[in-house]
Amino acid sequence: MVLAGVFYLETFIPLARWSDAVGGSRPFTMLGDGWFDVAIWWFKFIALIVINLPIIALIIVGFRSLPLGLKAVVARQSMISTPYVWLLVFFLVPFGIVLKISFSDIALAIPPYVPTLKDGFWTMLFGLDLENYAFIGAGAVFASFAVIVMSIIMFQIVYPRVRKALIPDARYGVFDSAAAALTTLAVALVNVALIVAVLALLFPVLRAFVDIPDFLYFAAYLSSLKIALISTFFTLLIGYPIAYAMARAAEHWRPTLLMLVILPFWTSFLIRVYAWIGILSTEGYLNQFLLGIGVIGEPLTILNTNIAVYIGIVYTYLPFMVLPIYAALERMDDSLVEAAEDLGCSTFSAFWLITAPLSKPGVIAGCFLVFIPTLGEFVIPSLLGGSNSIMIGKVLWEEFFNNRDWPVASSVAVILLLILIIPIVLFQRNQQNEREMDG
User: Fold this and answer.
1) pLDDT tens column, 271-281
2) Fewer CB within 10 Å, N side or C side of the chain?
3) What is the number of other CB atoms lying within 10 angstroms of the CB of residue 161?
4) How many Cβ atoms are within 10 Å of 118's Cβ, its own excluded?
């Protein structure tokens, strides 16, 4: 094992330095400059595998000789650790790379930032700084901090107490559910109002002490958040009735309806978005149809506006809302609704008392599946929104590929990820508190 570790240090650390220096393309080609180094690297890589084969064999033999009970424990722990290994390899490692780049400085090099591993580990470590986060704007960082702090105060402290005071014995009744929904909406509106007031009062003070060079990123964050929230709302508004109709359809029709929902995935995402350009343009099918039936006197300007972005997002992500809601509704016991109606509930009351609460997990999953990718969407606002639509995905594209400012783009991506993670954690804690209060 020690020998394998030595080979690892002698193989992958120089590889990382060299790959960092040449842009990460040389180890996978046998042509061009450095072919001898490539051959040496592949030789070391194969040697590393050969050296580890006896170690792997010893592990397998040792596992086979374990007692049956201990085997079960090891196997169970291995199965449990599998998703965590997947999370480490496919999320934490790439995030660590992006985080490292966000602390670097732009440079005319390949890759376009310094320091890199070719300068040495300690040189790279001490060469990192927070300049990119300052460039994004202290205002954006301060605003994000204000949103986080205010949300924690409102939804972790204020909201549970207000809800408990208004609904001391909260159950899934018509009045209780409506009161809980109105309470949540009121607290959210108060939260937004307080955040706006804090930012309006403290930004002038902040500008007196801190240089705030650019509000582009802050504006892009707010625009992305607004578009994602509105799109998620309309997707839920359209997707829930579709899922409900599918779940209430005859048994032999459900596979066909499910196939129709999944059918758009068989076509390229880019082609589907391009199709909406032909529909929403001034000379598109929608305007021609409305002009033909006399509803409008002149073509509507829909393309290159936020309305077109909303339409494209709702159309694209509608299946992600329909499928989890449909799964939740299909698992529901229909006898519960029948029992409620037998006890005198109207159809609407039975839906509000039984169906809506039981479909809540599907609604939450669908909203997350729509909101999170929409927040970083790039293709739809670029093609349908044009230059009038500012979203953080477009800003990232501009910084990465047009300006080639990888450090700033990485900083924007890191902040976006933090903005996404924190509300999810807060929401989960809020859901747990509600379950404790309702239980």
Assistant:
1) 998 899 988 88
2) C
3) 9
4) 17
